[in-house]
């Protein structure tokens, strides 16, 4: 499959067997040759309108490394509005923008709509980059928005962007803020790709925590089943779980505290850190620590998936059950400890 | 960091003397990331059992849970499943019988076999952390004298060396949502040939993959449309071709009669070939977004289990919704051609209106 002539759609069509090409793409994927697999699957996908089996096989390859939050996040209207408003406030005629993590290309297109002269949008997944390029063309913005199929860490300002940009916009924050690598990515980008004094959207992020009560779902723990005690299996349970910020079963039971704050504009590398906060249950019993995020887009706008707010958020709230199924009563305090290693956040509770 | 090659260095008193079980947990995580799963799990188990430091416990828990699928926690709550296995085991087991349970999990099926009167039960489990927990559960429930856990995949068992000869009965629950993807065909093929007495019984005995047209009113949540003035539909090329729906979801609608696409006899090792099937189903009036696919297990000649869409309270198995390229608007009596294929592990399904 190394000869690119073999990937020529005309050849595949002459053979009349796009499904066989799709099977080849699946085999390449299984063999770890992701990039070739994706290129082949993209061709099949574009040609297979009348061959649903080939299209389905191609979709297996193309979707293999596309997280399904892509489909959820564009339905998060408060997020979209927060980004759109911040871009409109920041962008002046003639400005050049870098969007880190194209996804659908939505933020890059927003930047172009807000008046940017030129937008570069980088995306490390080649299937996603290809589709983003097509979406940008469909929406008539190809003249001003360019998709670069690379991780931002591999961009060179002069070679790829025609010099440093005025604005960096990104949405590479995860439910715990860090696990998509926002800190190292932004460190590199602000240091190497942004003009001095340039704008970063979002500007800052805060990891928020509070004591909370959630009736831990029954499918997360073993009990007595059919007369047998299965509780030793609980040591294999995941230590955390995720709930929607709209889950009305999650009730905050203390003040919210800021566990970690990150300034994405900082030129100095962020170091690993540990911290702790003493939280007191005041409004009811607590059996867990809930963690969510807040983004300061700029000095005017923000976004927060605070539990109990009615609007949909594509970010989830992370629930850390208290150890040994402990329950705190109003007036009782606990130490909420946190650590981060730049890529992961861990939270645990300990007696005061 | 302290070298871990010497097992005396990882015993509890040594870790305690250092007073740093969190460091040991960090080491367990590093070992896991380095692919040294077995050492990582052993170390994490010690840290977890010590249980004195909440940070260390959290890290140990990350290691221990890392390759334990969540369905372990769901499936024991499926009471119809448990009852189907328990009653089939009670019907099959006669005094003196020796049983092999493939895939211990919690050890529940192995304990059911012992409770039903088996003289000796072997239960094999390839995940070391799961095998360790199963052993403890079996002990806690007082079955350690009759049930032994073997921390290996059934493919690595030798009847004479590991089981003291071939067994009378094999019980397993290694079927996935599509029946096949946990490798039930190859595993059972090998186990029946090498580990079961001639004429011995397998529970479940047979499995059938069932399909019908379906409509999921929430299907649009997995599709891109317009967002904030931009057309994002090209992204749908990257959507997964199938997804899971709970059989307890009452919004999910069946839009045709049900047909069988594949039937597997777990007694027979002779069906180890890929398969392809075409079926024509008759539609009901309305919209269809997918071909729904679920499973039927025939435990023996008497009992069965099926996770019928929209009819369950709780099931160990989800319905797979194989998305149609475009939603179909169907008239009652429309014919839809469904093509299904399997390669012993995956099941793939496509469908289109059958034009006369």
- Structural class based on helices, strands and sheet pairing of chain A: alpha+beta
Give the fraction of residues assigned to helices of chain A: 25-40%
Strand content of chain A: 25-35%
| Overall pLDDT confidence of chain B | 91
Q: Write the element-wise H/E pattern of chain B from the N-terminal end onward.
A: HHHHHHEHEHEHEHEEEEEEEEEEEEE
Largest sheet of chain A, if any?
7 strands, antiparallel
Q: Could you provide a short overview of the structure?
A:
The complex is a heterodimer of chains A (352) and B (356). Chain A is of the alpha+beta class.
Can you put this structure into words, describing what you see?
The complex is a heterodimer of chains A (352) and B (356). In chain A, 29% of the residues lie in helices and 26% in strands. Chain A is of the alpha+beta class and 352 residues long. Chain A has 10 helices and 17 strands. Chain A has 3 domains: 4-63, no CATH class; 70-171, Vaccinia Virus protein VP39 (Rossmann fold), CATH 3.40.50.150; 205-350, Hnrnp arginine n-methyltransferase1, CATH 2.70.160. Chain A has helices at 9-15, 18-30, 34-47, 52-63, 69-73, 77-90, 106-113, 126-138, 157-161, 182-192, and strands spanning 96-100, 118-122, 145-148, 165-170, 194-201, 204-213, 224-225, 228-229, 241-243, 251-252, 257-263, 273-280, 288-296, 302-304, 317-321, 333-340, 345-350. In chain A, the strands form 4 sheets. In chain A, strands 6, 9, 10, 11, 13, 14 and 15 form a 7-stranded antiparallel β-sheet that branches. Chain A has a 5-stranded parallel β-sheet with strand order 3-2-1-4-5, sandwiched between helices. Chain B has 356 residues and is an alpha+beta fold. Chain B has 3 domains: 7-65, no CATH class; 72-173, 3-Layer(aba) Sandwich (Rossmann fold); 207-353, Distorted Sandwich (Hnrnp arginine n-methyltransferase1), CATH 2.70.160.11. Chain B has helices spanning 12-18, 21-33, 37-50, 54-65, 71-75, 79-92, 108-115, 128-140, 159-163, 184-195, and strands at residues 98-102, 120-124, 147-150, 167-172, 196-203, 206-215, 226-227, 230-231, 242-245, 253-254, 259-265, 275-282, 286-298, 304-306, 319-330, 335-342, 347-353. In chain B, the strands form 4 sheets. In chain B, strands 6, 9, 10, 11, 13, 14 and 15 form a 7-stranded antiparallel β-sheet that branches. A 5-stranded parallel β-sheet of chain B has the order 3-2-1-4-5. A 3-stranded antiparallel β-sheet of chain B has the order 12-16-17, with no helix packed on it. In chain B, a hairpin with a 4-residue loop joins strand 16 (335-342) and strand 17 (347-353). In chain B, helix 2 runs antiparallel to helix 3, helix 2 (21-33) runs parallel beside helix 4 and helix 3 packs antiparallel against helix 4 (54-65). The N and C termini of chain B lie far apart (72 Å). Chains A and B meet through helix 4, helix 5, helix 6, helix 7 and helix 8 of A and helix 4, helix 5, helix 6, helix 7 and helix 8 of B.
